[in-house]
Amino acid sequence: MPTPKIVYIHFSQHQGRPAQPIVRVGEKVKIGTKLGEPDGEFSASIHSSVAGRIVSIEEYPHPVLGKDLCCIIESSEDEWQEDIREIRNYENLTRKELVEIIRDKGIVGLGGGMFPTHIKISPPPDKRMELLIINGCESEPLLASDYRLMMDFPEGIVEGAKIYQKILGANRLILAIQKGKSEVKDRLKKEGIEVVVLKNYFPMGAEKLLIKTITKREIPQNLLPWDIGCIVLNVATCYAGYQAVKFNKPLIERVITVAGDGVCQSKILRVKIGTRIKEIIDYCGGYKERVNKIVMGGPMTGISQFTDSVPIIKGISGLIILSRIFQASQRVCVRCGSCVDSCPMGLLPVEIYKALMAKDIEKAKDLGVLTCLECGLCTYYCPSHIPLVHYFKLARYKLRRIQSQIYE
Amino acid sequence: MNKVKKLLIVSSSPHIHSQKSVEKAMNLVKIALLPQLIYSFLTFGIRALIVVLLSVLSAIFFEFIIQYILSKEITITDGSAGLTGLLLAFTLPPGVPFWIPILGSAFSIIVVKQLFGGIGCNIFNPALAGRAFLTIFFPAIMSTAWIKPVLGTLSGIDTITSATPLTVLKNPEVYGNPEVILNLLGNRKTIFTLFLGNVGGSIGETSSLLILIGGIFLLLNSLTDYRIVIGYTGSFLILVFLFERRINPLFHLFSGGLLLGIFFMATDWVTSPVTKMGRWIFGAGCGILTIVFRLWTKHPEGVCFAILLMNLITPLIDQVTKPRIYGTKRSFGWEKISLNYLWEVPMLKRSIFHKIFVVLFTASIIYHLAIPHLVIAQKKGEVRNLKGVIDATQFPPVVPETLWLALDSLNNLKGIVFKSYPNGYGGAIPITAGVDTQGRITGISIGGEEEGFNETEGLGSRVREPSFTKQFIGKSAMEINLKKDGGEIDAITGATISSSAVCKGIRESMKSYAIYLTYAEAMKFIVFPGAMKFFSIIKDTLWYAVSNYDTLGIVFYGKVIDGNDTVKFIAGFDKNEKITGLKIIFPQEETDIKKRIMDKVKNYTKIYKRYLE
After folding, report:
1. Where are the transmembrane segments (chain B) (predicted)?
2. Which chain A residues have a beta carbon less than 8 Å from that of B273?
3. Which of A8, B74, B198, B233 is the most exposed place for a label (fewest CB within 10 A)?
4. E strand or H helix at A195, and its extent?
């Protein structure tokens, strides 16, 4: 997709603290110029995706947070930061130097988690890494960004995977894809990587379930994947890591899927971070009919937007434009058990819901509401149209607040 | 370009839905029940349809009224009330008076469903609870109001009125020779008939085939849980194969409300567990209880009560079968379990009313199961009554409720027993009398007020006294008349009309039934149990055995020459050329040429079977 006239680059595009702005209004920037430095360890840096002049730094609609600090850049020329695109020989670099590059180039988890990658690949030294899983399973139905990336750049992904393997010192490297993508499998195998084909069902792309399916082990509660010697990285993160290490290129663009019945053409695009939805949709031929919902992310866990001026941030893998949407009034629970059958985490959504309705948040916690993936399957299947995920999100938010209050 | 309205919809994920809904589910269940409904209409006539309509409409009406009174949201459009009414009607005998479905619906909807908080909060399956309520409080209606299906009936059993196959199975001895009856119930043809549904029974439970089709339709649409279905059927079949030794176990599977219960009652969303493991347990529990009730209580049927009792412990099952949460160890939480789970639903606080209701309702179910079943008790009483007038052990009926053969345990004819209702001074006098093979009275008894006896106290009522009835013993039809009319019976002073009526009733019945005392005539009934009439094909040699609707087989008369003696016998065979019975008429004592006779019978069968074509 061509470079838009104006981009909106948020300083908070990752989990953790927002990046600290290091540029001023009016300053000229080039493609790849660093705009924000990470604020502390649990943060990530932000780079400009265009070359031009900074118009303003102000609050602007944010796809996840509602509104947040944003750097607005008017694009004028096509000038790259000097040190970018030079091919680096990374063979001799130490692990620490490689992690520093990843951190400097603002790589975060591109599957949707937006977890800063440099933290993920720096496990405590006492943990031995057994397995690195590269997640090529599409995180949601309708999306095909990862598929496209694997079709187009298999060598980049595999090389990226090997860089991460080197950093982690993992014994085994596996690339997991879903059934029905045999072409991808052949291409990746040619590059010399172990490929595992998994069943095609949602939410296979979720980290915890992926690990369980491949290793038959579960991550105990309150522990992280590296505690059982596993790391999961998305293919897009791999590719971004490859570009960062090999070409010194920061994370300034990503692949997204544009789909849904409200847009004229469904497309898979490489877009600059900071491009507004509006422009992407215009590029896809515009809106088809009356649009009721714009969802960033996938249809199951994505976040619906209140305006189409929000920009793309690093973790957005899809854009779903819906004109026909499901709306039905909520009825009482009839205990059909669909939610229990569908829950991939073995929760009892019906019991959690009833506990929450009785304002018994402690009981909901006992029933495991914090384990919830928010995958949305329970709500998808509920014949009484109860927005279960909505209640669970609220409860999780409240519980986290209670926890952080205890800390303070 | 500005087709985007100012307002986009913002909501929590997910943004797509499976389009499942409660209404759709309810409608699909109704569709699944439709074939059986049409079939009942065809077999039981318009009356069955009226019962169903009354039940459905009153259920919807009561739901509306109670929600209006309690100022709740009116939810009759979700279709659940209609479904409850439909399922309730399916469990009722087609011949019930019209107030029964209305009362049942009222109990189901108002007490069991709405007073417990409406759909999703009820503990018991409303339709089954409604039926249980009716069964407990109106046992006479609920166990006798059967209608014979017009398409024809189970061959052989239709001689017995007002009974379902399961009732017969429970106490076969009161319906005739137990061996013969069990043989009849358990043969392939009967089971096939049961499977197709050509039998008497509740409106919605007759045709196993149609219920099965509906049930599989639901399973394919994943509206019912296969775990409950398999758990129930599996545990039931295993136990029935282990413990039912009298009859083909398949008989149990296709009779009564079992399949309706498995597919439409046990799988009810609200009252079955939500956990996968819990559903297996729930299904298995239903199967076990059904078998226990069917085999080891005094009641023929157990599906309804089995499911209701399992409903009761559903919250408890859910509690102990919580699935393991990802990343944690399995915890059963036994320590947290209390009896409260029997009536607690987390969202609602149960009041003392609910607790009392649950306890009383459960207690009355258990009490009902503990007391003898009404119809069976009546039948047993009847046999006791018959035994009182003649010394015999089996009483195969010839004319239902009126005439029985009296046989000893070796199937030898001892005589007949009949009932007669001559008009006395105050109405019909119910008389039971036994006659031996010589045509002499062996005993009479006159029924009390419960059978309609209403003669003048102190005068006419004295005909019941032994001093009067004893006079009849040993008398032949000729001698039974008052002395003033040339007979040998002393009239009761001041009650000539009553005395004369008794004599007249007995005398006339004896005359009209005398033919059954001729050995050959009675033997036809013995060698072909279940037949009601015999039409002669070849005079004194060959007869069709006929039920009310259907030709059942052939009865014939034959002989074997054994040296100087001729052994005469009578035998019968059914449409499958299976010998239904064989009786040697002459000589009376046992002969040792049984095998030769059997060969001869087989020859005869080959010859005569063409009459059945």
Report:
1. 37-62, 98-116, 191-219, 226-243, 249-270, 277-296, 356-376
2. 337
3. B74
4. strand A194-198
